[in-house]
Design a protein that fits this description.
Layout lengths: L3 H5 L13 E7 L3 H12 L4 E4 L15 E2 L6 H8 L2 H24 L4 E9 L6 H13 L5 E3 L11 E10 L1 H14 L3 E3 L4 E5 L4 E5 L2 E10 L11 H4 L1 E11 L11 E4 L5 E6 L5 H7 L6 E10 L6 H15 L4 E12 L6 E4 L7 E5 L5 H17 L4 H7 L5 H26 L14 E7 L2 E8 L2 E6 L10 E3 L4 E3 L6 E2 L5 E3 L9
Bound molecules: flavin-adenine dinucleotide.
Length: 508
């Protein structure tokens, strides 16, 4: 499942790994957070290395729907429910700073950005109250929102809140420019290099799959932090969701002009992508509209959905119903992390002696939040923390956020029990036939949970126990992967680590 952006962008080259090299800043992860913070430091004259286990934009950033918006579905009311108005205001101010930085950067680099209205709509009559609440909280934080009864979506809606003049783009355009600018300033981006551990010595010692490097500071911008210090993995919930792009017939008169997100279930995200130079004429000749449609939704906690392929099919069916003639061109999936109070975690990692920093928990609003996190960490390290970041750093955790965190951990505990109980009381691997193509199952080998899968004609057997904290994995039909329902680690059928808090492959 490759995203529209990753499928149409040439690969970005990698720099060589130099064992024992010494840098000022070592950034781990080449998504939007990592590359933005790397460029900020390189502009300040620091020697910067970005270490990336896969490739630039391989995870959430390259699979985002890339709406750069301050209206974020019903996010502000979720934050308000867990914290104070001052924190809501600081969140809005930080996201505005992130949005402004990215728009100025895109403008300075001539990157195509489309200005669009952001629309959070009610898909049911029950959603109306949520729309109105979001309107009130957004307005109280100074955002120029308005309420409307109508949208240009080709199906019934029940009212919406609109924030004009937001933006959308191709996230790989931004990552490509950040990478080029970083290199221009002497920074290096080393792909295919997994960070396995960091020792908070002076300088910090970074252990990778290819040897060690050293840095004054280490910035973990890995989606969820891959070090267990501070137990942040337990405070974050990993949520996976799906997106697909569609070509439409040339006579499609129903192409919506804004960026839409439902505030109620089923979640539907809708935006269009204008054709790049030269493609418009080809589309016309093929009887297709120049714009591509993107639809997203059907999110769920990682590893806790029985049949993920059904969720992809459901997205296609919904789109075919509402946009007649839509033909899928790409479909993909990605995950992001949610904090109990919906405000990202950004700052230093406990027991990191002020040398290890991290950012996580953007709750699928990382286009603005990744940049606010980068501005925050750059300010923290250079002694110039932005005022809104000071408020976010010092927010008080209210009982509602504690209750959310406890609820999430109770669910995690239940999944841990369910996984082990299911295997120990279930059949032995040898008693079961090999799985059909694209399928996988977990069974017992002795007392050990073993995952068996067949993908592209190859049958693999791996330990089905997550090396992070021992959760029993589940099979993801849509992406043919082993996923951990506890903290969101994911593995390829042969056990190779794909993402998540763990740093180890599965044993085969
Ligand atoms: C389906 C979906 C749609 C979304 N749509 C939107 C949207 O419209 N608007 C919006 O604002 N936000 C959106 N988001 C959220 C946004 O995409 C993310 O919050 C943001 O991209 C996160 O950026 P990041 O740089 O922190 O993480 P990532 O882009 O995930 O980058 C982390 C990088 O770290 C690397 N890494 C991990 N572990 C290691 C290791 N041990 N060693 C070395 N490298 C490592 C990974 O390979 C990866 O490249 C969406 C998210 C999803 C899932």
């Amino acid at each position: 499942m490759t995203s529209l952006w990753l499928a149409s962008t040439p690969e970005i080259t990698t720099d060589p790994f130099e064992p024992d090299a010494r840098y000022d800043e070592v950034v781990v992860g080449a998504g939007l957070t990592g590359l933005t913070i790397a460029l900020l430091f390189a502009r300040a004259g620091r020697r910067v290395a970005v270490l990336e286990s896969r490739s630039i934009g391989a995870l959430a950033t390259g699979k985002s729907t890339a709406k750069l918006s301050l209206l974020q579905s019903s996010q502000l009311q979720k934050i308000k429910a867990h914290t104070y108005q001052s924190v809501v205001q600081a969140y809005v101010d930080g996201n505005l700073a992130g949005q402004r930085w990215l728009l100025d950067y895109a403008d300075s680099r001539g990157i195509a950005v489309q200005r669009r209205d952001a629309v959070s709509y009610a898909g049911t009559s029950e959603g109306v109250a949520t729309v109105e609440r979001e309107y009130r909280i957004a307005a109280s934080a100074g955002l120029p929102v308005r309420l409307t009864d109508t949208t240009d979506l080709p199906f019934e809606t029940f009212g919406a809140v609109v924030l004009p003049d937001q933006a959308q783009f191709d996230p790989l355009d931004i990552l490509g420019a950040l990478a080029a600018d970083l290199r221009e300033l002497g920074g290096v981006i080393i792909q295919g290099t997994r960070v396995i551990g960091v020792k908070a010595e002076k300088p910090a010692r970074v252990r990778t799959s290819r040897g060690e490097v050293f840095g004054d500071h280490v910035l973990l911008t890995t989606g969820t932090p891959m070090l267990n210090r501070g137990l942040y993995f337990a405070k974050l919930s990993a949520k996976r969701s799906y997106a697909a792009s569609y070509s439409l017939p040339a006579d499609a008169t129903l192409l919506p002009q804004g960026m839409y997100l439902s505030v109620d279930a089923p979640t539907r995200s809708v935006r269009t992508v204008p054709a790049k130079d030269g493609v418009t004429a080809d589309a016309g000749a093929a009887g297709l509209a120049a714009d591509t449609l993107i639809v997203g939704g059907n999110g769920h906690p990682v590893g806790r959905e029985h049949d993920t392929q059904r969720l992809v099919d459901d997205l296609h069916e919904w789109t075919a119903d509402h946009f007649p003639g839509a033909k899928p061109t790409h479909s993909w999936s990605a995950q992001d992390y949610e904090t109990p109070h919906r405000v990202p975690f950004v700052g230093y990692l406990p027991r990191g002696r002020g040398r290890i920093y991290f950012a996580s928990g953007y709750d699928k609003w990382g286009m603005t939040n990744a940049v606010q996190a980068a501005l925050t960490l750059f300010g923290d390290i250079t002694g110039d923390t932005p005022p809104w970041a000071k408020v976010l750093h010092h927010r008080v955790t209210l009982p509602a956020a504690i209750a959310s965190g406890l609820g999430a951990n109770a669910a995690t505990g239940w999944w841990a029990l369910k996984g082990w109980a299911g295997v120990l009381t279930g059949p032995a691997t040898d008693d079961l036939p090999l799985p059909d193509e694209g399928q996988g199952f977990i069974a017992r080998s002795g007392l050990r949970p073993t995952g068996t899968s067949t993908v592209d004609g190859r049958t693999c057997q791996v330990s089905a126990v997550c090396p992070h904290l021992g959760g029993v994995l589940t099979w993801n039909t849509a992406e043919t992967s082993w996923d951990c329902p506890l903290h969101g680690s994911r593995f390829a059928p042969d056990g190779t680590l794909l993402e998540g808090p763990t740093t180890h492959d599965l044993r085969t």
